[in-house]
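Figure 2 data, in text form.
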Amino acid sequence: MSSNSQDLNQVEAVKKIIKGLDEINSLCFDSNVKNKIKELQSFVVSTFEVDSTSFMEDMIYNKMIEVKQISPDLYVKLYMLYRNLVRGKISKEEASNSFDSCLSLYSFDEMVY
């Protein structure tokens, strides 16, 4: 295995770790756990020099597509958040906070009767 393919595998592994931490962070409501997750993300990003903004963009986009049919209001909020992040109008931290608040304000679970 060449060093280039090893480097690509390591980069992909780091991307998966950061993406997983972002997903856990968005699902968690405990502030202590959220703080620990952010510390771990910062450590991984600084250690491996990876841009975490693209992971946040991916996470917002995926959630946006997921809720499109279930909650049009949440879809619009996430779309605007996504566009602002892509255009550089808000930082990754602001996007993360807005993403968390959007998910907590809108219930997109289906009711079963």
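Caption note: The mean pLDDT is 79.
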